[in-house]
Structures are given as structure tokens and as C-alpha cells.
Amino acid sequence: MNLEELESSYREEIDRLGNRLQNAVLALAQAEAIIAQMGDAVENLNGIVEEFIQQQQQET
Q1: How many Å apart are CA 58 and CA 52, to the nearest integer?
Q2: pLDDT tens-digit profile of 27-58?
Q3: Predicted confidence band at 59 (pLDDT cuts at 50, 70, 90)?
Q4: Which end of the chain has fewer CB atoms within 10 angstroms, the N or the C?
Q5: How far apart, in whole angstroms, are the C-alpha atoms of residue 45 and residue 53?
Q6: pTM (2 d.p.)
């Protein structure tokens, strides 16, 4: 392997690493969005349960 081949191989591997990092960052952003949506759903469930408890207390 000469210097030009080394440089070419090095650049190709750096490009692959950059692409993998970009994909990982995108996946992380998607996961964060899903987790935020799940948090909203949990808050909605909490509100439903609280409303149910209040109705039960009013009926007794």
C-alpha cells in the first residue's frame, strides 16, 4: 500500500464513520420525539385517572 492508497482508504473510512454518526444522530432525534409523545400519553392517562377518582369521591 502506498501513500495515495492509504489516504484513499482513510478518507473512505472517515466518510463511512460520518454517515454512521449522522444516522445515529437522526435515530436519536426520532427516539427523543417518540419518548416525548409517550410522556404526553402518560400525562393524558394520569388526567383520566385523576378525573375518575374525583368523580368517585363526589359520588360517595
Answers
A1: 10
A2: 999 999 999 999 999 999 999 999 999 999 99
A3: confident
A4: C
A5: 12
A6: 0.70
